[in-house]
Design brief:
By secondary structure, this protein is an alpha+beta fold. Helix content is 52%, strand content 7%. Bound molecules: glutathione.
Length: 213
Amino acid sequence: MLLYLNDTSPFARQVLITAIECGTIGIELKWIDPWESPTELIKKNPYSMVPVLVLDDGRSLYESNLICEYLINQSELDSKSILNTNYNSFDQLGIYALGKNLMDVSFRKVIFDRFHKGVSPISIRSDTAIQRALLELESFTLSEDVTKINSLSDICLSVALQYIEFRIPKLFSKLGKNTEQWIKSISRIESLKVTTPAKLGYKPEHISSLFEI
Ligand SMILES: N[C@@H](CCC(=O)N[C@@H](CS)C(=O)NCC(=O)O)C(=O)O
């Protein structure tokens, strides 16, 4: 399998962490700039966005959550030992929704700040929404000592928070105490440590090579 990605995309990082947690580290990495609308990428995804997973038979799948679900279902590891998202737990779904939207809205803000001349109303709206979400996050029960990534909700939330730290540090400084403790703890997990934007900047050819950087 092959994954089209770039080094700063939170959506691509979500897929990389899922692949690592699933033990699927043989995936080849194809680094590409989606904003240049390369023909090669458009052939795989008409929206010219990353990530895109390409199977050995040439078929491709885009949309980060779907790629993650596919990798989990294809994994040879015991499904109970990997990302066991509990779709019956409304609390877990709540954190999943908050984390995934935090990623979407933060990314939207960063893009508007980059491409819009002056401050865009969308950027201000996103800023306010992120602050409300961070406040709400404090009311969820987040473990203080995370030793393992348990679900896609853990991945989405940690990637979204670290994306805010990387791109919108002034909002990261508004994190509440519980959230701060949780992100500090989960950041020690190997799959997060080897996929920071700094490490991805080395653009290795396979996921497995990330462990050698
Ligand atoms: N909903 C998509 C979003 C992917 C996305 O927005 N990717 C960004 C990179 S972080 C991109 O390729 N942007 C290029 C563009 O919007 O044209 C997913 O979850 O995979």
